[in-house]
Amino acid sequence: MLCLKKLAKVYRTTEIETTALRAIDLRIAAGEFVAIMGPSGCGKSTLLNIIGMIDRPSGGEYWFADRNIAGWSESQLSDLRKETVGFVFQSFNLVDELNVFENVEIALMYHREVSARDRKSRVQAALERMKIGHRARHRPQQLSGGQQQRTAIARAVVSRPKLILADEPTGNLDSATGEEVMQLLTELNGEGTTIVMVTHSRQHAEYAHRIINLLDGAVVTEDIRKIA
Amino acid sequence: MLRHYLVTAARSLTYHKLYSVINIAGLSIGLAAAILIVLYVRDQLSYDKWIPQTRQLYRLERANPVPGHGIEHSAQCPFPVLTAVGNEISQVRAVTHVVPEQMTVHVGDRLFHEKLTLVDPNFFQVIRLPLVRGDPASVLSQPESIVVSESFARKYFGSADPIGRILAVNPDHSSACAPSDSACLNATYPLRVTGVLRDVPHNTHLIADLIVPNTSRTDAMPQSGKSSNWLASDFAFGYVELAPGANPAAVVAQIGPLLDRLVDVKKFGFSGRLSQMDHYDLTPFQEVHLTSDENGGMKPPGSWTTVYGFAAIAALIVLIACCNVMNLATARASLRSREIALRKLGGAKRSQLVAQLLGEAVLMACVSLAIALSLVEVLLPAFARFLAEPVSLHYASDWRLIAFLVAGAILVGLLGGLYPALVLSGFRPAEALKPGGIGTSGSGMLRAALVVAQFAISIGLGVGAVVVLRQIDYARHIDLGINREGVVVVDGLRRMTPTERESFASALKTNPDIESVAYSRGAPFALMGWLTRVQVPGKPEVDGEILNMSPEFPALYGMRLLAGRLLSSDHAEDVATTDSASNIMINAAMAQRLGLSPQEAVGKRVSGLGHEGGSTIVGVLSNANLRSVRDPLEPMVFYFNRSGPYANMSSLSIRIRGDRAQDTLAFIDRTWRAFEPGATIERYFVSDLFSDYFRQGDREGALLGLFVGIAIFIACLGLFGLAVFTAERRTKEIGVRKIAGARTTDIVGLMLWRISVPVLIANVVAWPVVYHYLRQWLDGYAYRISLSPLYFLLGGAAALAIAWATVFAHTLRLARSSPVHALRYE
Fold it and tell me: Which of B25, B484, B494, B730 could form a disulfide with B174 if both were Cys (CB 3.0 to 4.6 A apart)?
């Protein structure tokens, strides 16, 4: 599905240069569930952002479905991203001013091929599936952490992406709710969605087929759990 | 503690630069504009307040119903009326007549054209203008005396002592002399300087540089006019000093019966009583400039409308700046919530926090005031020049005003800071310290309301300014039906006998650059026509204006002949020698009122013009408004009276060719001197006189535009600040939307729409209010633009465009930024 070759990311300010990623080689096949682990500051989130096309590499190649997209323009990336990628964040990133339904709707708002009616029904379906249909008119602040993350996952899946990127999706949740979220992700993976997840939790990483350990911007080990 | 607050306040100002700049720039500019307006308003209100002992002083003014015009208010009053009021009403302590006259003053062989003021000998005891030399009680007791102001004394005599010096004065005595008595018309009288007046400042409604007792032979008003001209004011002003404690209303109530007792109006050809025709009122001396001077005072009038209007604009500008302070402070509240929470943990009471936050707002207002005062310092000279009023600000002598401004700035600080202080100090520390801090959704409604208010005010002012400026422009360019370009008028022709006048005209016509000349009683926009009531047998009576003019007049001003023929010197019937006219012309409006087409009107006999057996209409002229754009077009009667006692052919209109105007003017001046060596020429271009009508309007219009621009600018500053802060708070949302596939255009569109909503609401709020006031204002004009909805739509569109332009760049930058940063924001 995607393939990174000698991928690098360097942050520059006027005074210092920080290398976040150095020469990453990584291949992720369609339908895989991959977990990325590593200590704080090792480049996990940067890698995830680049995979999700919301950040650009400083060097190397990024092949997505047989196209090297490393040099694509913002709007090309934007179009590709909205077709293929869904995001789940540790801090949920729900918009306080919008209610649950509207938050999920955002993910389909910019798909011009989806009619308003379709959009409404798909959002409703996604909410039902995440068991928060009854909270559709509530604001994020009125929900529990688990409900907020389920909303965020609903938002990530409603556009039916091939790839879901989850950045510490359980980081802000208690263990029971965390398990619930992992079950959801596993379920989505079972339906064929590729999942790349950054996590600190060994236990949650065990849900993945493959664990990639990063240290100082480089892949140190790959730990293959199961064969898909 | 105080020092700590001051330091925190100063830190807060310097740390949040954008916020401080927006607030301080907005407040400084707003306060500077407000101070300039305050200075202007103060100057307008200061008129005549500096003259001592004016509390019991009033101006007696007449109002009389004029057919077709409603009640016509005048600033003047007939000479004998004031005399009678002074003699017969016991609560009146004294009266004094004041009549400004233009005269030629001879000093050696130098000639000056001056405005002299003819007054009762008691003048300085009633209106106590300060004298440098001379005793107020006796300085005017000798008939042939004159009191000069210090600067006029210097102009005439240099540094020499003016007392006892002689000024020879050549007045316009035409109404006192027989029309053919050349010696009487050109007499010069010596006046002895008996006193020196301290220069009167600009802020008085009086013309008082050269003061002459009206017992002098120079007085142009004939004795008969002083004693028996009960019905005409003749540019005479009357001042009344009431006895201490006297009630002006009680005095006014006695005037009607008094006049009815003294005057028999039947002698003047009227029925009924004088009190039914003329009403009198007393206007307090200090209020004359702003109230009744507009009805024909000595100097250009002020107006309460303008004073109130500008004061309102000043208040609105400051209000808009206050909104900014309030708005940005609440918008920023989440940024400061942590500091406030920590102070609370440290034991700060809410009242202490309110004091601290208010202190910051007040400090900011005071900094702004200091900047505003510097701005005023820089701008004041230009402002004064522009107003043509020496408005000024002296810190030492104007300490009261400065104190007022400081108090005002503190009030502005409190006003702008109170709500944010209450909101901020009310945060619960636990919430404020949570990750993500505190949303300020509670004050979101208030911010929206403030933005709506600011924009409603701005839109209102903007639409108002555009309509006012359009109306001024429209009035200036309206087709009044006369060609006013290239016409020079020479006034003061009454000092010539009819024969001299005609030779003067012939002499001028020898110049090939002079196309034509015509004389008339007054010139366009300075007519001395009078009202008359005419009737065609079998039709209702019609009121109209009657004008004496030579037959060349219509052609010279480009008035067209619609039917019949022009009057002509060659037809004996066309030339009146008494006040009754045999043959007349009328304008189209008169024909219409008479119920006749121009063709039908020709040949009709008209009664009411004093000619036995009626007068005959020989021609009908196209409509021309010879008065002003303020007045509607009048039905008119034109006749030609060459030499009758009331002919009063005072003005000569001269149409000159444009290319060598300077030479032609010099030729006119030379010719005048040859005919009238003892008097200076009074000449002007008709187009200049016309422009004079608009000078004040233009000035006020330009000021209005400027201040409205400032108001809108300040509102935009606030909007910009708000957009920045809201956008910052919305970075997460923008990030989420971008991840969902929103393009830059989608984001920008969304942000602009959010800005548009309050602007659109502001339109709905502003339109009806503005419509109401503009409707009222326009009704004051005879010729007015229609209040098209386009003004409102364009005003709304402009507001929207300005709002968009204000926030566009920032929004674009934000929309383009990578969503990674946005999502890391928390």
Answer: B494
